[in-house]
Amino acid sequence: MKVWGLLVVFLLLIPVFALAAANGSWLKKVPAADRARTNPLAGETSAAAAGRNLFRNNCAKCHGENADGKGSRPSLKSARIETATDGELAWLIKNGEAFKGMPGWGALPEPERWQIISYLRSLDTTNSGARP
Amino acid sequence: MSIANLLGLSVRGATRVVLFLLAVGGALLVPPLATAQQEPPYFVTYSSVLEEPGNLEIENQNIAAAPKNAHAFFAPTVEFEYGVTAWWTAEAYVQGQTTEKDSTVFTGFRFENRFRPLPREYWINPVLYVEYEDVSAADKSFLEVTGNTSITTQQVANAALRKEVERSIEGKLILSSNAKGWNFSENIIAEKALNEAEAWEFGYAVAAARPLALAGGGKACVICQQNFLAGAELFGGLGTRYSFGLKQTEQYAGPTVTFNAPHGLTLKFSPEFGLNDNSAGVLWRFGASYEIQQFRDWFRRAR
């Protein structure tokens, strides 16, 4: 009986966890050391091109072919993504936001995750109409 | 003479086989969309990678073997894996087997759930696994090995084996780490029959793998290193609560490789070698899977 009670409490708490991880709250969770990391592939056009292929294989299914978002899944052409540091984006891709629907991509090799960030940096965010 | 008679099957058995083949055929006809690149190439071992939320993966994995002193067999399993949330994946399996000079039988089904309790990536990532299975003793899928078993059971005819159906629950503690492109995964398995007075049975699986290239290329390509993952698996039984250990258990090990083809098709292959006299010489495994992306959007109104 106790186990069922705990299970019910856990299920009831899920929306609370989701609310706690409201839009942009992940930024507060990034440790300082991760926040300060820089993309070792920054400025390499080949990295952005490779990142585009990786994005299409792994991310486009939720965020759209051109990162414009899909349904309730957010656009990545937003002010939040634009102003986030490379380290913050790397932390988010690696860890995800499981209770907000974003899985972690820690099993993807780190160089590939940096290539995806290079691609995100190459996106034209002007007139994207994305929520900040 | 009907096809069922030709194959030596009852009408009910033939219907099951036809449904099974339709499921496999249907899986192979679904239009592929994209590649699941971070999933390690394991057949038995689970890693911490869950299905992405909303995606449905349909996999057909097969095993073929010719054990010593028993007839050769081929056992296909169809697996439907759905990402309920980013921390919860649900799966259903249907399975069967055909044995040379014997018969083709449906061997049962399984439902499983995997939960990732920790929200972040750590040096070791736990996943909790709970499964209910309704599988006959004729099962030759080797989706895991638990308890004290021997390949010699395969000498018994399907007609006798299929009468013995075990309904059981199975729990796994999945531990998985990612470092420098490598994935290391360890599974500890515990299984308890619900309809028989059997002791808890235990098993294990460990594996390691990595992509052949750690960075993507600028041009989209098919046969290139980043689309291949290679590794090795080791798995086997650990006896029961009363006979814990490796004695009288099946043990297997072998290399495994995955090819992530464009447009969502993934192909896997592994020869697994028996490590003791209780095991089959070689289990040949091969599988194909498609991922239907954002399957749940099919049931949502357009926004």
Q: Would you write up a description of this structure?
A:
The complex is a heterodimer of chains A (132) and B (303). Chain A has 132 residues and is an all-alpha fold. Chain A is built from eight helices and no strands. The longest helix of chain A has 19 residues. Chain A is globular. About 6% of the residues of chain A have low confidence. By secondary structure, chain B is mainly beta. Helices cover 9% and strands 47% of the residues of chain B. Chain B is built from three helices and twelve strands. Chain B has a twelve-stranded antiparallel β-barrel. The longest helix of chain B has 19 residues. Chains A and B meet through helix 4, helix 5 and helix 8 of A and loops of B.
Low-confidence stretches of chain B: 1-11, 23-35
Rg of chain A is: 16 Å
Average pLDDT level of chain B: 88
Find the biggest chain interface: A-B, 35 and 43 residues
Helix content of chain A: 55-70%
Order of H and E elements of chain A: HHHHHHHH
Q: How many E strands of chain A?
A: 0
Strand content of chain A: under 5%
H-E string of chain B: HHEEEEEHEEEEEEE
Q: What is the count of DSSP helices of chain A, taking H or I runs of 4+ residues?
A: 8
Oligomer status: heterodimer
The residue-averaged pLDDT of chain A reads: 83
Number of distinct beta strands of chain B: 12
Helix content of chain B: under 10%
- Can you list the strand order of the major beta sheet of chain B? 1-2-3-4-5-6-7-8-9-10-11-12
Separation of termini of chain B?
55 Å
DSSP strand content of chain B: over 45%
Low-confidence stretches of chain A: 15-22
| Class of secondary structure makeup of chain A | mainly alpha
Short description:
Chain A has eight helices and no strands.
Write out key terms for the chains shown.
heterodimer; A: 132 residues; mainly alpha; 55% helix; 0% strand; globular; B: 303 residues; mainly beta; twelve-stranded antiparallel beta barrel; 3 helices; 12 strands; 9% helix; disordered N terminus
